[in-house]
Structure formats: structure tokens, C-alpha cells
Amino acid sequence: MSVELERNLLLHARAQSGLLRESDLVSISRRADELRRRLRSGLWQEVLPGVVGPLVLDVDRDLLEAAAMLWAEAGWLSHHSAARREGIWVPDDDRVRLGVPFEDGHRSRPELVVVRTRQVPELCTDGFFRWSPPARTIVDLAQLLDERTLSAVLLSAVRKEKATAAEVASAAEPLACRRGLARLTRVVSLWTPERESLLEDQLHADVLSVAPGIEVRRQFVVRNRTGADLGRADVVIEELRLAFEADGLLFHSTDAQIAADQRRDRQFMTAGWQTARFREAALGDRTGVRRDLAGIIDERGRQLRVA
Fold it and tell me: Do residues 49 and 69 both lie within one domain?
């Protein structure tokens, strides 16, 4: 093969993670047996059927994902593979997961799971890789993950601003009969205004239970010493200048939301108020929450008496 043809092949491979399809080899070299010739040379290896790369390349998960783009031209990275493309946390899985249209003939291999679907999503792409969008990816993962792990995946997606719970719920609507949707519905239900209100109700009841004889107020506007409004607290004991916040997932998960919470806590502190926040995960343990509340209230009372 001429130097010019070899150079053309290498340039083509460079745009494809170092890989070439049999059709690439035939069209550029104009030899029908070019794939076999390269494999016989001992310098090339078959990564997937009809897809080859130099022997120096390690056939790891990343290379297999690239090879899958060439092996199944109608396919896309799905499930764990799609989540990793977006930087969304998922449990580690060495296998590549590839979605294909239902009528596609490609089948799973030991290192690659092919998932056929009649509901082909609108794909994301960088010009070479193709993958399912984040909301659909989370819907797909609901088939495989338990509820706790699925919740962690959704939290990761929200914190990275890749998808919202509402977008995930919308992506699930056309797939109403799919396995895992009941689990997904339970997870998404934690990301609603109604859930935020329920958590506030629970926190209010818990504060009342450990502070008998003390006035406990809800949705109290905290002001600084000049009377300026600093914000509305979920639950407060005004006489102790003590605010309690029920931090549900919907409004207290992204980096921006957490930063805003911390900024407001500092403003409250400057005005002489202490803020105690309880996250969604902690609020499920009512006994533990009440124990912590009792300790916080007792300690705050001692601080003010000393002052």
C-alpha cells in the first residue's frame, strides 16, 4: 500500500478513536480483502466484528464504546454508558450498553449489552459518539438499579444540571409499561413541591414534640437588626432565635441552591439567628431527628443564658 493511502487511513482512524470499519478499509484502499490482510499482519486487532484498531490500543471499555459507534451505525450509548458520557454518577459496570432500534439485527456480546427499543430517543452527539439524553438515560437505568441507587443517580444528574426530576418524569411517559417505572415514580415523587410541604409538616411536628410549652412558628420572616427581610424560615423558635429548615431535594440539591442556603444561613447568623438544616435522607428517621432537635434546642438555650 502506498504511503499516501496509509496516511489517509490513519487520518480517518484518528477521527474515530483510532478505529476503522471494514467499509473504511475497502473504500480507501480499494481492496476487498484489506481487513483480513491487516489482521494477518499481526499489527491490527478486531475490536468488534468488522471494526479494527492497531494492536497497541488497549481494548478497554472506552475503546469498546467507540467501536460500538462503528459496529452499529444506528445504535447509541445507553444506560451506564450514556450516564458516563454526561458525567452523571452511576455504579461501575465494565460492560458497554448500546441501544438500537427494535428491528436492528445486532445482538449482545460478552463485553457489550445490546438493548432494543421501539421508543428511539432524540440522541445527543458530539459528531462521533451518540448517546441517549440524560432524562431518558435515567428512565432506562430504572430497569436495572434499586431505588436507593437510582435516587443517587438522579441526584447526581440534578446537581450537575443535566436533568430535572420533572424532565425524567416526562421522558418516562411514553414508556408506561416498562419494568422499573414504579420504582422510578417513587424516586421522582421526592422531587415535588408537595414533598417539600410534607417534610416541613414533619419537621414542625417534631419540633413541637420536643419543645413543649415553647411557641413554635412556621414560615416565619427573619429580619436583621434594621428590620430588613432576610428570608422566610420553615420552622422557628423565636424566643431562642433558632430556625429549622427541612431541605427537600427539589429546592436544595444543586450547587447553586446549596450555596444560596449557606449564604442565607450566614445572613441569619449575622442577625443573631442560628439555623439547623435537616436533609431529605435524615428526615426519614423521625426518632433521630427528634433526638437531634432536643439537643440543638437545649444547647441553644444554654448559649443564650450564658450570653
Answer: no
| DSSP code, position 52 | E
Per the structure, the complete domain to which residue 274 belongs is given by 193-306
The strand pair at 51-54 and 76-77 is best described as unpaired
- What mean pLDDT do residues 240-252 have? 93
> 248 Cβ partners below 8 Å, 6+ apart?
190, 191, 195, 196, 199, 280
Cα–Cα distance list, 298 to 203, 257, 268 (Å): 17, 29, 20
Residues 257 and 158 in one domain: no
Amino acid at 305: R
CA 61 to each of CA 94, 194, 225, 284: distance values in angstroms, whole numbers, following the listed order: 6, 42, 59, 38
CA distance 137 to 86: 10
Residue 178 burial (C-beta neighbours within 10 Å; 0-12, 13-18, 19+): middle
Number of domains in the chain: 3
Phi and psi at 232, nearest 5°, equal: -105, 125
What is the amino acid identity at position 255?
D
Distance CA 83, CA 75 (A): 16
Cα distances from 232 to residues 126, 133, 137, 219, in angstroms, run 44, 37, 37, 6
Q: What is the pLDDT of residues 53-88, one digit of tens each?
A: 999 999 999 999 999 999 999 999 999 999 999 999
Q: Which of 138, 167, 191 lies at the terminal end of a domain, its last residue?
A: 191
